[in-house]
Amino acid sequence: MSTALGNETGSRLAVPVAVAGTGMYLPETTVTNQQLAQTLDTSDEWIVSRIGIRERRVLEPELATSDMCVAAARRALDAAGLSARQVDVVIVATYTYDQPLPSTALIVKDALEAHRALALDVNQAACANGVQAVLLAAHLLQSSAGQVALVIAADCASRLTDPQERTTRVIFGDAAGALVLTRSPTPGAGLLGWDFGSELSYGVQIEAGGSRLPTGPRTYADRLHYLKMNGREVWNTATRCLPDSIVTAVEHAGLALGDVTHFFLHQANLHLLGAVREKLGIPAARAPVTVDRLGNTGSAGVFTALHESFDQGLVRPGDTYVLSAIGAGFQWGSLCLRHA
């Protein structure tokens, strides 16, 4: 059974919010398809033809997800002209947290010296964590106690994909993206519409390490701590649910697809992006791509596309844009915003 959450058409948040700055961090190490083919039964031709990825970034072994978060966050704060001391909430969206406890958001908050901020983690919707975190941040800013929210989406899938298994190993890359949300004086700006849905599936899962199947010698021997993914099930669910979610979020904003200037979509693979665009009739120029050179960077994927467009000055005041992603569970979501 599926469930859905959205706002009513024309029903918007009482307090407008604005993306005041964005940032991104990419690890220095690049891994090409040719390098993967040295240890896996695959080839550059196979990877490019099947998923459209040519290379991806891999985090250096001495670093962790929080290090990527901190670097991306600092760049976003610099772009917004704000200091960490002004941040009221730090939300980290990741399924590759530093460790089960303590909170990765708390680790990031401490490193940034954002001492007054509330630290929150969003971590079990995988690639959809980032859009969930933006929805949460926008609602937290409705309180007068919140003026600035720092949202960071980061995933280090190289630590959770099986080095011996090509299906996941060739797809994923490591990256972090961040955005600063602030209360805005511009009427009609910010989050205009949203749509979120879910239906339980184990098509994407990490089986071991929780209360149902605790860590132990057998779980390691059976390689149950690695990410497993049913690609066909992901494709079918994503191509069925993402287009409908995007249309619903845009309709809830009181707009039509033709009114939307930019579509920042889940960077799962090139063909999935194309299928979603084709179903919606979106020109390629309105849906930027990073997956071909960064791989599927999980919840960071949408943020990398967003950051590059903001950084290049392509998102102008008054532009409307959509953020949309699907992750393990399955959970999916779409946001429709207007730039202040």
How would you explain this protein's 3D organization?
With 340 residues, the protein is α+β, with helices and mostly antiparallel strands. The protein has two domains: 159 residues, Peroxisomal Thiolase, Chain A, domain 1; 167 residues, Thiolase/Chalcone synthase (Peroxisomal Thiolase, Chain A, domain 1, 3-Layer(aba) Sandwich), CATH 3.40.47.10. It contains eleven helices and 14 strands. A five-stranded mixed sheet has the order 1-9-14-13-12. Strands 2-8-7-5-6 form a five-stranded mixed sheet, sandwiched between helices. Helix 3 crosses helix 4. The longest helix is centred in the C-terminal third of the chain and has 22 residues.
Helix/strand layout:
Layout: E1 2-6, E2 17-25, E3 29-32, H1 33-36, H2 44-51, E4 55-58, H3 65-80, E5 89-93, H4 104-112, E6 118-122, H5 129-140, E7 148-156, H6 166-169, E8 174-183, E9 190-199, E10 204-205, H7 217-221, E11 228-229, H8 231-252, E12 262-265, H9 270-280, H10 291-294, H11 300-311, E13 320-327, E14 331-338
Parallel strand pairs: 5-6, 5-7, 12-13
Antiparallel strand pairs: 1-9, 2-8, 3-4, 7-8, 9-14, 10-11, 13-14
